[in-house]
Amino acid sequence: MKILxxxxxxxxxxxxxxxxxxxxxxxxxIDRQAASITDKNYTHHQLxxxxxxxxxxxxEVEVLINNAGTQQEADIDINLKALIHITEKYGVxxxxxxILNIGSASAHTGSEFPEYCASKGGVVAYTKNVAMxxxxxxxxxxxxxxxxxxxxxxxxxxxxxxxxxxxxEETPLKKWxxxxxxxEWAHFLTMVxxxxxxxSIIVDGGEAIKHNFVWK
Length: 216
Known about the structure:
By secondary structure, the protein is an alpha/beta fold. It has a single domain, classed as NAD(P)-binding Rossmann-like Domain (Rossmann fold, 3-Layer(aba) Sandwich), CATH 3.40.50.720. 37% of the residues lie in helices and 17% in strands. The chain has a seven-stranded parallel β-sheet with strand order 3-2-1-4-5-6-7, sandwiched between helices.
């Protein structure tokens, strides 16, 4: 299948791309950094997803995973507006089988930076809108909303013993997910699932139960 993933050079996006490549799918990545994956089935486009006029022509995408995102830097422009543009350009078309938006547990708790929470909350609402519109193609659209994930983006708290201990007090399972664990959820929701649609799946180790936000 033809899989399009945004934000593939590190963290969750990279793990998702590798998960699909492991099964021999054609994976196309878009990221503003240079490619970090070398595979005969992988094609990389280096550009900022906000540069709408530079987006490549990619036809008949079957699975779209909107992973690219940021914190504290143009959150709404990248996390929401660009996600919408990417989806309308590549996802809302007859060949699509599944669209997955990588959201955040913060969309449900409001427990993070204001603009970040707002951007991810918008993703939840937009996911439902898209699910309604692509149902006629027999396709699903969901958002996968992680809590803490062990990625480079979060190293400032992961590597701080005091803050990490405080975070673990807010996480009932006393651990954060790996990128590979989130990639497994992405694979399930797009390749195995065929009936769940318009939903926001929170995968956070119980963080939303105790939602005090801890940061450096």
